[in-house]
Amino acid sequence: MQQRRPPGTEEGWYALHDLRRIDWDAWRDATERERERALEEGIEYLRAHVEVTDSEEGGSAAFTVVGHKADLMVLHLRPTLEDLDRAERRFESTALAEFTERASSYVSVTEVSGYMHEELADGIEDIEDAGMRNYMKQRIYPEIPDAEHVCFYPMDKRRDPEYNWYDLPFEERSELMSAHGDIGREYAGKVSQIISGSVGLDDHEWGVTLFADDPTDIKHLLYEMRFDPSSSKFAEFGTFYVGRRFPPADLPAVFAGETVPTEGPDTGTGESGTDRAEDERHPGGTDEGSGSGSGSGGRPDTGGPDHEEIDAGTLSARLGQFGVDLEEYPEAGYGLLFRSDADAEELNEAVEGLRGNFDHYDTHVLTAVRADSGETAVVSLWRNERAANTASGFLADLPGVGSGTGAAFETDSADSADSTDTETHGTDEDGDIRGQLEDLDIYAGTPHGEDVYALVLYSEADPDRLRSELSDLGERFDHYDTHVKSAVYADEHGGGRSAIVSIWETKDAADTAGGYLSELPGIVARAGEESGFGTMGMFYTVKPAHREDFVETFGEVGGILEEMDGHLETALMTNETDENDMFIASQWRDREDAMEFFRSEAFRETVEWGREVLADRPRHVFLA
User: Fold this and answer.
1) Do 64 and 246 form a contact (C-beta atoms < 8 A)?
2) Taking the CB of the first residue and of the last residue of the chain, which one, N or C, has fewer CB atoms within 10 A?
3) Cα–Cα dist 606/236, whole Å
């Protein structure tokens, strides 16, 4: 019999799912002092591990478990088994442990496999595609998603006489896994996952932990996957545990039977859970950094700038050697220099293509190939360090490039501040606007407490060609957790151009994606550039039975808009692959004209009517 070669794997952090039952009889019989001590020590234990004070890297989170199988689940991610062993024993030393008993546990290690990329057999660092490399590192060094609900279960691949996964050729297994992953990517932005391997570590082969704000999204995902051959023929499942996230400070509420999480100001998880540093080299970014209320106290450096920071004087002198006089570029706040041993013609061609993307950003000053005394280098100047750090990753991937250097320059330009970044058309960033909308009870682009960033471009290309090319690009975008969706929309009433909508969880990711989207065929304009002010009502997911009513009502509202001062144009755009998914784009003379409409009784009545016909709450995003 032919010996099957196992696909390569790369491991990251070890995982412990620690499931506990509460001894309610003992809790009721305990004195008030005993209870207080148990809760105090329990809070201290949970807070210390959520903040990862016991290790330089990892994450922890606490959940209540719904149903009879357990009452609590604590998830730990740590670099070593020793770390997990210590965390487990540390809990047993608390007074809280006296009122719990182990319901179950599961030990595993986060992993990615060769099904994801065949070059993994030689290790992640040998994968040439930097985007794929970073994506894999995010998978094995994950942040615990800050979602309300969790679902954990172990699983195996079948080894039955009829359906034996391990007897299939690699190509067939890889194809099945790819199709399985396609289903998961349809739930990007709704369900996040941590996949961990447990062969030789526990009773099953993998542990799967899913996170979502809406638990039915987890149900729908798993239900759909049950019909995929990878599951229907080859998967076996262990026990499922479902629960809800709670901060350490809410442990007393858990034992008191009260609602968690509570709304107190001290959640015990710190305030950095949403302040994650994004590696902007690729649209998905890479979460880095310090203690986090979202469950990660630290991660390895999976991205970051690919240059060494040096002093400004030294870099200025080196730039001068290559014919770059900084006095000619007073707006430059940060400079990069990457030397290359590649053929100058090849390097120049690659830089030309890269510069086309860079020029989409107002922070870009100069990127060029320069030569001096037989040496070739790429010089790149930017208005601020943050933008330069983004560019650094791309420059490091150029032919023949080694390590680079960079430095910040003094400049009087306001654009040089780190807080300045490229403008993403389609992004609701104006706090004043947001405040006005909140006063009007209008949803201003913050689903589940997180901003959504939208990019909209218009194209006159053939819609079929546009869909095909966006589909290819979307496959790359789907590698990143920050990608919500990208789709082609057509004018419901037969307009001459299509809209490409791309939605991301972070502004940095949307900015980076914009460079790629702008290269799609037939692009004629970017939303928000055609008027003094643009608005976009997004995520109009219409209930199928009310679709015709929605289109008819849009026509009535359009008639009202035509009579309003400052209104230029409004179009109803429909997703070409889902007729019930729509958005409304409007162009106005200025901001105040648009606000007059949002203050109007007609708009209020439309919003109220929409509650009955829409499957989800819409988001309003300002484009300019």
Assistant:
1) yes
2) N
3) 49
Strand order in the sheet with 401-408: 307-309, 401-408, 334-340, 375-382, 364-372
In Å, how far are 44, 54, 244, 521 from 40, measured between CA atoms?
Answer: 6, 18, 21, 61
Which residue of the set 14, 153, 187, 453 is catalytic?
A: 153
Q: What is the pTM of this model?
A: 0.49
582: enclosing H helix or E strand: strand 578-588
Three-state secondary-structure class, residue 511: helix
Distance separating alpha carbons of residues 165 and 206, to the nearest angstrom: 14
Are 72 and 150 spatial neighbours (Cβ–Cβ below 8 Å)? no
What residues form DSSP beta bridges with 307?
Answer: 404
Q: Indicate if 153 belongs to the active site.
A: yes
Contacts of 58 (CB under 8 A, 6+ apart): 13, 52, 76, 77, 78, 79, 83, 296, 297, 298
How far the first Cα of the chain sits from its last, in Å, is 65
Length in residues, the chain: 624
Give the residue ranges of the chain where pLDDT is below 70: 1-2, 117-119, 121-122, 129-131, 263-305, 356-357, 359-362, 373, 411-452, 507-508, 525-539, 608, 611, 617-624
**Whole-number Å distance between alpha carbons of 261 and 61:** 13
Which two structure tokens, joined as six digits, stand for 381?
Answer: 């100047």
The residues, ordered by sequence, that sit 6+ positions from 345 with a Cβ below 8 Å of its Cβ are none
The stretches of 364-462 forming alpha helices (DSSP H) are 385-396, 431-439
Residue 2 tokens, joined? 């032919």
Buried b (16+ CB within 10 A) or exposed e, 455-486: bbbbbebeeeebbebbeebbebbbbbbbbbbb
